[in-house]
Structures are given as C-alpha cells and as structure tokens.
C-alpha cells in the first residue's frame, strides 16, 4: 500500500526527515495558498492527514477528502494515532474499490438482463415467421422447378407430349401455391429477416460504447422503449411519455440506455412481487437547463429503511445471488454526468425514481460530434 501523506500547512517542523522515519509516513510541507486537491491522486491512495492552522482550514481539508485533520498545536502528540487511522481508512477504501471493480462486469450484465430478454422477444417472432415461410417457399419452388424441368426436356423433343403427360404436368403445378402466393411468401420472408437485422443493429448500437460521451435525451429514451416494451408488457402496462426535445446530456447513449434499463428492471421486479394488474411509466420532463427522467411503478414499494439504503453498494432485497450493485452503478453513472438520482417510495403504493441530468451546451456537443458519430 502507498504511504500515508501528511500535509503540513503553515509552519512545518524543521526535522521532516526524522519525523518521516519515525512515523512511517511522507510529510509534505504545504503552503496555505495551495489547495489540498492539487496533490496527485496517486500520492494520496495510502491515506491523507492534514495538519492545519485553524478551524476554517480544517473544514476545507475535510471537504477536499482528507482522512484525518489535526490542529498544528496538537499535531506532534496526536500525529501517530491519526496516521494509523488514515492508513486503516485507506485500506478499507482499497478493499471496497477492488470489490466494486471485480463485480462491475457482473452488475452490468444484471443491468442488461431486461435488454437481453427484450432482444430475444423481438427476434423470436420474425425468425419464426422467416422459418415457416422458408419451408413453404422450399416446397413451392420444388414443385415449380419440377414443372420447369419437364418443359425444358420436352423442348428438346420434336414430338408433342402425350395428353397424359400434360395432365401430369398440370397436376404437379397445382400442388404448389399460385404465383401471387409464392410472391407473398417471399415478401414475408424478406420482411421478417429485415426486421431481425434491424433488431440486431439496434442491440449493437446499445452495447458498443465507442461514440461520443453525450447523447440526445429523447432519442435515447425512445431506444429504450423500442427494445423493452415487449418484455415489460408481459408484467405490466407500459406507459411512455417522451416528448421531442433538443436536450443533450453528458453521457453516451449506451450508458444512458443501460442506466434506464436497470431502473426499469427494478420497477418490473416490484410489479412481479406485488402481483395483479400493474403499470410502469417512463417519462421525460424537459426543462431549459435540466432533463428529468421519471421511472414510476405501482409495485410493492419500499419502506423508509429500504429506500434509505437503496443506492448503497451490495444492498439488495431481490433473489439470492443478486449483487445489489445495479442501482449503485446507475446512480454513479448519473453523477458522473453531473446529475442526481432521487427516490420516492411507499410500501404497497409504488416507487418513483427521478433522474436529473443537466443539459450540456450546444456548442460543446457540436464540437465533440465533429469527431465521430453518436451511438
């Protein structure tokens, strides 16, 4: 583990090397004018202790992430204990971060469960239609091709075909559907395969996150609706109210779709747990400087304790084996975009999750879009 950093603001002790050796720490004299967050993150992984001259500096040091804060007049007496506590806190952070990184891929797959089910649902119908039409077309083509082969054989024979051969030939043709039906079967086959191709294309656009880190809010939400309606409606009525807007937010389309998918998955599970005729709503409320997404359900709801802990890592009320990171990571993605997640819920009434996204400036979005297409 990295060494604990002791930032000594103001007047620092004269024998820093001796102090470092005694305390097993790196002591850095820091001019009061230099903010604590100017230190590289790589230097503070082992813990950060700030020695400050007054209460105002102490408050600022805590707000900037110091593990321990000491007043300079008590630093020598209490420094060793403060370094020990900072080291323990840094070790706990490292364990939490390692566990989150280890489980992140599993949680992303959990957030994509509903998307995968939606894709399977969307592909099942067109592929079934394509398979049926392929069988019908194969039988029809076999009959018609047999007739064509007979005619080609007679064309090389100068004698006219006997009447019984003509009747047999006509009987062969009548075993196949009329030409108009064959054309319709072929059209259905092409349409079904085209629909399946579009579904696969949509899925690729949602799972390959290589585009710009911004997206059109309305367009991304309609992607969610198109992919997930079929699956959600197995559980509840799905009401979508997403007006057209020009709001752009600082997250990519795939990241936003995965985030909303995680919220819809929670809403669907809440409706399953309560049973009966349920409803899930997805709404966009546009404002000039802010876009608000609402995911609302009338499912089982949460009591105050569950609601308070809902965004905590590894907390879950779902099936055994669920990781409890879906809402944690969804919230983290929103906060990385400068937004916030708020949850209102009541037991046996339902839950409303509101996601607030600040709008990014049009010129900033245009500058990034010039470097590549949006997902």
Features:
alpha/beta, Heat Shock Protein 90, five-stranded mixed beta sheet, 11 helices, four-stranded parallel beta sheet, Rossmann fold, 3 domains, 375 residues
Write up what this structure looks like:
The protein is α/β, with parallel strands linked by helices and 375 residues long. The protein has three domains: 4-104, Rossmann fold, CATH 3.40.50; 113-206; 211-369, Heat Shock Protein 90, CATH 3.30.565. 54% of the residues lie in helices and 17% in strands. It contains eleven helices and eleven strands. The strands form three sheets. It has a five-stranded mixed β-sheet with strand order 6-8-9-11-10, covered by helices on one side. The longest helix is centred in the middle third of the chain and has 43 residues, at 113-155. It is elongated.
CA-CA gap between termini: 40 Å
CATH topology of the largest domain: Heat Shock Protein 90
The helix content is 40-55%
CATH class categorisation of the largest domain? Alpha Beta
Instruction: Report the C-alpha radius of gyration, rounded.
Output: 33 Å
Structural class: alpha/beta
Strand content: 15-25%
Strand line-up across the major sheet: 6-8-9-11-10
N-to-C SSE string, H for helix and E for strand? EHEEHEHHHHEHEEHEEHHEEH
What global shape is seen? elongated
Low-confidence stretches: 206-210, 319-325, 369-375
CATH superfamily of the largest domain: Histidine kinase-like ATPase, C-terminal domain
What's the mean pLDDT score?
75
């Amino acid at each position: 583990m990295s060494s604990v950093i002791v930032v000594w603001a103001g007047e620092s002790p004269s024998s820093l090397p001796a102090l470092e050796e005694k305390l097993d720490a790196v002591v850095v004299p820091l001019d009061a004018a230099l903010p604590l967050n100017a230190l590289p993150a790589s230097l503070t992984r082992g813990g950060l202790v700030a020695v400050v001259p007054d209460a105002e500096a102490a408050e600022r040091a805590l707000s900037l992430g110091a593990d321990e804060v000491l007043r300079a007049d008590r630093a020598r007496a209490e420094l060793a204990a403060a370094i020990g506590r900072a080291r323990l806190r840094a070790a706990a952070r490292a364990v939490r971060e390692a566990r989150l990184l280890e489980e992140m891929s599993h949680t992303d797959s959990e957030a994509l469960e509903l998307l995968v089910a939606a894709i399977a649902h969307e592909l099942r119908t067109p592929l079934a239609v394509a398979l049926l039409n392929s069988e019908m077309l194969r039988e029809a083509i076999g009959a018609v091709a047999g007739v064509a082969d007979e005619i080609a054989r007679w064309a090389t024979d100068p004698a006219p075909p006997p009447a019984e051969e003509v009747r047999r030939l006509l009987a062969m043709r009548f075993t196949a559907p009329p030409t108009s039906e064959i054309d319709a079967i072929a059209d259905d086959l092409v349409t079904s395969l085209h629909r399946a191709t579009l579904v696969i294309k949509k899925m690729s656009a949602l799972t390959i996150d290589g585009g710009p880190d911004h997206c059109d809010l309305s367009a991304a939400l309609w992607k969610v609706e198109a992919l997930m309606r079929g699956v959600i409606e197995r559980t509840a009525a799905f009401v979508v109210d997403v007006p057209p807007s020009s709001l752009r937010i600082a997250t990519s389309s795939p990241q936003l779709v995965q985030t909303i998918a995680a919220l819809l998955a929670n809403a669907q599970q809440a409706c399953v747990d309560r049973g009966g005729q349920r409803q899930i709503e997805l709404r966009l409320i546009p404002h000039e400087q802010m876009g608000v997404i609402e995911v609302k359900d009338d499912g089982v709801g949460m009591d105050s304790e569950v609601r308070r802990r809902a965004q905590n890592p590894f907390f879950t009320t779902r099936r055994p084996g669920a990781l409890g990171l879906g809402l944690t990571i969804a919230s983290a993605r929103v906060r990385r975009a400068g937004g916030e997640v708020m949850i209102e819920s009541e037991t046996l009434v339902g839950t409303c999750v509101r996601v607030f996204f600040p709008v990014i400036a049009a010129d900033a979005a245009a500058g990034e879009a010039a470097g590549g297409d949006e997902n």
